[in-house]
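Data availability (excerpt). The following record was deposited with the supplementary files.
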Amino acid sequence: MSRVLTVFLLLILLSSCGQAGSVDIASQQTQAFQNALLTATFSLPSPTASATLPPPTSTPEPAATITPGRTPPVQPGVFTTSLLNLVDQPSQYIEDYCGYLRNKWDPTKSAPGTVVMPIMFHSITDGAVTSADQIHVSQFQQLIKDLRDQGFEAISMTQFVDFMYENAKIPQRSVLLIVDDRKRSEYFETHFRPLYNDYGWVVVNAWISHPDTAPYLWEENAWLEQQGYVDHQAHGVIHNINMTSDSTDEYIRGELFGSIEAFQLHFSKIPTAIIWPGGSFTSRSVEIAREAGYKVGFTINPRGPVMFNWVPQGISLDPMRPSYIPEGDIHDPLMTLPRYWDTDASYHIDTVRQIGNEAASYAETNKAAELEYYDIVCAPEIGEMPGGQP
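Predicted structure:
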């Protein structure tokens, strides 16, 4: 066992050493922010034993009815890329293979390779940067410019959820801007209103529904919600006490259902996303979030971008990134989604673009086999592929 562990650690070390220059700088900035964020919140739960995600099925089980005299072709495995960390592996979450293929190749929906880059923001300052979770306004403006230069467009949480579940049409390079914690209206009016006015970009606010929230903060943010460019989503109630393996069901329910009740009262809406406070999540908190009706959940683990039926997950505890809670043992990728950090997001934009391009190429290579499988196995059950796909 010790020999296997030694080889595993050596592979991780080699993969990290292979990324030089700006990536090293980005890793340092990322780790600094992670340490600061963990210090600001209560301790994270100790990871359980390393979990391994089940391997993808190369050929799905045929449906009960197939076209007589035709053998379904072997189906491709999950798209993988060397641009992810070795410890992070893409996971699929749709069990209905025929439904997945139908949404994937429907010409009215997002093309294969459409990619989303979720980015987490905390504080933007025009003065001195005094903490690891702050960025200077010039760095924020450069990040927006870099996203624009590479063809990214911001989407809302509603668009994101519809994309992840049904492959709804979104820009092929999309970004989901998520601002954590309670903010004054001035914060959004200064930094994000210009993006809405100039490009139609919206921003998500991970809102803390704490009982000590001043009435003027509720009023200002209700006004922002009405403006149409700030989309508030849940970030807990007490917030600074993370949901861990030690949390009672009563506390977890208070964080999740309590957010819903506060949103209904102040924002006249029901949140569809839980941005996990402190980035901490457990199997039980995910179960209760599903019970409450949440559609997606976000960690603070910057493992990579996401695509339709494709989410990078940590399959085990990573000695090089020990603060990242592995998501693999949760078995619900949509509730443990990754997020990049604003402090180093610019370093990763081109990587996200490349992953999308690789995925598009991989899909095109396997298109004929997937469409043939659909025609033989799926069409007799759920109908022909929309749009007259061959």
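Summary of structural features: The chain has eleven helices and twelve strands.
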